[in-house]
């Protein structure tokens, strides 16, 4: 008789056990899906709020690149005297000043984009220094002339960085 009772309890316990296991897996999957949904909604909200800030950072860096373009830099900044070294220092200090003003924008840009912008800034400074070292450059006005002539022959370093920014912004949409 006891064997029959054990068998009867076993027959009642098996369906309850199966139902319990199914319920456990159902609720486990349900909570996993809910957590994923919450993460997605949070990510979506963050992206909606940060997209305007990121776009503003890209705009500011595009403006920076436009301002340090040698053609525009030379037109905007005129020499104080005829000394080419002081004009070279003035141009470089203006570039550095603009760069430092926009340093905080790097947190909104990708590392690759920031590195390209830094490379464009350094290449522009290098271009000015090379032009200043030429033997035919003996005055500030001659330095301006040499830089403008060089810009007629090749693209400004900031143009490549600006193109990269445009491509990166187009990928945000």
Sheet with most strands:
none
Number of helices, counting only DSSP H or I runs of 4 residues or more: 6
Helix content: over 70%
- The total count of strands amounts to 0
**Averaged pLDDT, please?**
91
Low-confidence stretches: none
> Quick one: overall form?
rod-shaped
How big a fraction of the residues is strand? under 5%
Quote the distance from N terminus to C terminus: 75 Å
Q: For the CA atoms, what is the radius of gyration?
A: 32 Å
Compact summary:
The protein is mainly α and 173 residues long.
Question: Any chance you could write out the topology, listing elements then pairs?
Answer:
Layout: H1 2-68, H2 70-76, H3 84-101, H4 111-133, H5 140-153, H6 157-172
Helix pairs in contact: 1-6, 3-4, 3-5, 4-6
Explained architecture:
The protein is mainly α and about 170 residues long. The protein has one domain. About 85% of the residues lie in helices and about 0% in strands. It has six helices and no strands. The protein has helices at about 1-70, 70-75, 85-100, 110-135, 140-155, 155-170. The longest helix has about 70 residues, at about 1-70. The radius of gyration is 32 Å and the shape is rod-shaped.
